[in-house]
From TrEMBL, chain A:
It comes from Aliiruegeria lutimaris. The chain crosses the membrane at residues 227-250, 270-301, 326-346, 376-399, 405-428, 449-471, 668-689, 719-741, 761-781. Its main location: membrane. Residues 229-353, 671-789 form the ABC3 transporter permease C-terminal domain. The keyword Cell membrane applies. This is Putative ABC transport system permease protein. Pfam families: FtsX. It is found in: Cell membrane. Keywords: Cell membrane, Membrane, Transmembrane, Transmembrane helix. GO terms for cellular component: plasma membrane. The lineage of its organism: Bacteria, Pseudomonadati, Pseudomonadota, Alphaproteobacteria, Rhodobacterales. PANTHER family: BLL1001 PROTEIN, MEMBRANE COMPONENT OF PREDICTED ABC SUPERFAMILY METABOLITE UPTAKE TRANSPORTER. It is a multi-pass membrane protein.
Automatic annotation (TrEMBL), chain B:
It holds the Pfam family ABC_tran. InterPro entries: AAA+_ATPase, ABC_transporter-like_ATP-bd, ABC_transporter-like_CS, ABC_transpr_LolD-like, MacB-like_ATP-bd, P-loop_NTPase. The keyword Transport applies. SMART domains: AAA. PROSITE patterns: ABC_TRANSPORTER_1 (PS00211), ABC_TRANSPORTER_2 (PS50893). Signal peptide: none annotated. This is Putative ABC transport system ATP-binding protein. CDD domains: ABC_MJ0796_LolCDE_FtsE. Keywords: ATP-binding, Nucleotide-binding, Transport. It comes from Aliiruegeria lutimaris.
Amino acid sequence: MRRAALAALVSHWRRQPLQFFTLIAGLALATALWSAVQAINAEARRSYAAAEGMLGLGSYETLADPAGRMPLETFARLRRAGWQVSPVLEGRALLGNQRIELLGLDFISAPQANLPGNPQLRETLSPNEIFLPPGIAFVAPDTQRALRDIAGLPHLIADTSLPPGRLVTDIAVADRILEAGGGIDSLILLKGAPDGTPGALAPQLQRFDRQSQGEISRLTDSFHLNLTAFGLLSFAVGLFIVHGTIGLAFEQRRPVFRTLRAVGLPLRELLGLLMAEIILLALLAGGLGILLGYLIAAALLPDVAATLRGLYGASIPGSLAFDPGWAASGLGVALIGALVAATHGLNSIRKMPLLASARPRAWAVASTASLRRQALAGLVLLLAGIAAPILADGLLAGFALMGGLLLGAALLLPLVLGAALSAGAALARGPVAQWFWADTRQQLPGLSLALMSLLLALATNVGVSTMVSSFRLTFTGWLDQRLVSQLYVTAPSEAEGERLRAWLAPRAEAILPIWKVDTPLYGTPGEIYGIVDHQVYRSHWPLLASSDTPWEDFYAGRGTLINEQLAYREDLSPGDSVTLGPGWTLPVSAIYSDYGNPAGQAIVHLPLLLTQHPEVPRLRHGILTEDPEGLARALHEEFGLPRANLIDNGSLKAISLQIFERTFTVTGALNVLTLSVAGFAILTALLTLSSMRLPQLAPPWALGLTRAQLARLETLRSLALAALTFALALPTGLVLAWSLLAVVNVEAFGWRLPMFLFPAQWLWLLALSLIAALLAAYLPVRRLARTDPSQFLKVFADER
Amino acid sequence: MLIDARDLTKTFTTADGKLPVLNGISLQLQPGETLALTGESGSGKSTLLHLLAALDTPDSGTIRHQDDDITSGNDTSRAAVRRNRIGLVFQQFNLIPSLDIAANLAFQARLAGRYDADWCAVLSQRLGLSELLSRYPEQLSGGQQQRVAIGRALAPRPPVLLADEPTGNLDEATADSVLEMMLELVDETGAGLLMVTHSTRLAGRLSRRLHLSQGRVA
Ligand SMILES: Nc1ncnc2c1ncn2[C@@H]1O[C@H](COP(=O)(O)OP(=O)(O)O)[C@@H](O)[C@H]1O
Ligand SMILES: [Mg+2]
């Protein structure tokens, strides 16, 4: 009995291979996008965990001076007073052409369990090896390879637990590489250290939770939240597809279900069989989806890695490891999605009367009441989203705004489309036009899920591409302003630097030192630059807000320029005082934009910096010159400077832009994928509906419309719905872009971007969605145009 | 002559092989004539009506509507025949669910470009539909729906009305009154009527009767 029943149920898929394909493909696509995003996130998280958690320092509190590094004596004083602390020195260094994050720990006092390298290995190393030059350092194998040929580095030991680009070494070695002059960034509070601050012992020290300093994880969180949102969105779109196909499969098999019940299969067993079928299908599609997701993730990961490195300085490897965790989550999500999509069908079977009803049932009838309920829910979501950033601060509020906006708009879509179609019907002149609008309106319930997914995809597309393009435009303009010099020269040493300046003085228009110190600003990593008095700064520097006489104050040593990030984070405006170090405060004379930099930054007049930080490395210079090419060649010959130390502003601009292009490759790829999934959703919905369309199309056909006319109208219908959906998606997407630029960006990066509109992109997107609608309509319409008249006639047959 | 059909044959191909349904049928319909087509279930009445209504094509034989051959045309010309020369009424009513009653009533007339508001008003009044014009088909009873279908078929003043068991889905009392209205209106417009029915009682109300059996006129 059960086998016969199963055979009867499964035979449906043999007869409807296309339906089988859409079901599997829809679920697989949804799972693929979801698990791709999960895979990328998991990979990146693993790397951060390696970066921060490897040392287990996340579990320790620290003492630090918000104004900057502390001298070695502070550490010694605290130790003598019985404080269980261990010093840490951190910094970035350019070693060869590698940007390396250095972490200097005191190998003796630091918590041993948290040091890299296994204890046995460390035991085989003699203290002399560790502490005497050149010393030892632990790096990832990749980094070890990259740094192999660089002279003057400590002996590098490969350690797979370290992320690429990070070097862990003894604090003395780090001090030498960073030229920190014995300074200490922070003190780890070990077990047994007293509570509170040392007070009079070191009044400038404050206690920090290590987590709150987790700059990288805070910043990258937004990136991952972004990705996850994309993944969820794609999955929702995929669910719409699955809902459609499963609903259809159930509807079409009603007679089979009825017969099976009539010949004595208990309801419970029928439901059990169907459930088993769904689970099997979900596992099959989920497996395919995970495979596909892995491929997508592997293809995207190098760009993600580049993005994270470029934007946040966070290092993750560019290759993907297979993790059963996200594979399982993908499979689970596929199962849950399929079961959710099937509940409606299963439920209707539970309630199905044994005898067929005479009236043909429409498959997706939504009552006006439920439509209204749905619209109301949409409105509530929309309002809640708008309220979120007003009521709360932070990244989450920004995402609540986006979520509420997107979901609310999607839920409102059927009502809005219904109203538009009614208006169309009211304005229509001829009978065909009138029928067209009225009939389109009637199709709406069956198509609304697919159209909602199209709306989501389009709105995200408009939103994200507006953000990206605004960003690009702003960033390019900003780079033009900011890269004031024609040539950038880095001297290999201070002595060479001095010789270089002397040599350049008669040959260049101006030499602009780019000297900076890395120093915490308000307890987070920061940098202070010194600049000389030159007209190019006044005319070029991208100021966002300033006092009345910013440059006069600045060059008189009565003011500082700070970047937008720092101003936002510390809530500083022109005129406010900013602390640049212990006992060093200056009024803010202006705030400038500084895109792509996670660190807080301040600029002071160079003499001021030299008094406060005489140790500042004097290596980098910007050169104003008519002939950057010739000068670069001359410098190359005269000083033997490698090409990497001589960069003209054109290549610098190209490099910077390249980073940002890659930043958005990922989003772009996900955008395209989501849009294609939405197109697929429309195709399935149209295919689903087309098989139930005959009864609605037969009367107009009998009354004198040709099949070709009907086919044209069906195509037009698909186009009209796509165009109307686009019309609603556009404003939704623009509001989305606004919230990305003005809310999410500010919360995540500390900078706000001006929004630009790109109507050409909208036209392109409209064209894309029309093409998608056209493609989606093609199969069902071709089928309709070729429908044999006898199929129409069956509609009129007596026996129904 | 309104309709002149000669030697029509039609064979369906089914899973069990060929099924000859019509084996050389000829029939004529004169202006003002009302013809009843009777026969057992499955005798091919609907098939014949579909051929006459240009909904389907015969395997052989010719059909002329007012001297114009409709068997040789293409999809478009057959659609034009349905639009302009024929009123169709089905057992299942087949109203357009997305349009209200007024729009349904006027649909074919407007499609054919022969919409006459006064005539439509007369039709809806005579068929007792005046109160229902802004409703939708699903809100009407079977008898009401069939009256709309009759009105829709007669609105363009077609020369011929073809009806396939128009009262088959209605109870007897309703069937009688609907048929009465239809016959009166057909009489007034001077159209020819060909009505399929398996009820000898109803067939008796018409001027002539044709019985189908074994794919032939008996
Ligand atoms: N499209 C078709 N394909 C195959 N067989 C058909 C088709 N349409 C009708 N038939 C068969 O042709 C015969 C005549 O049908 P029909 O004209 O509907 O009979 P009636 O209307 O007199 O009851 C029946 O046996 C029916 O099953
Ligand atoms: Mg019949």
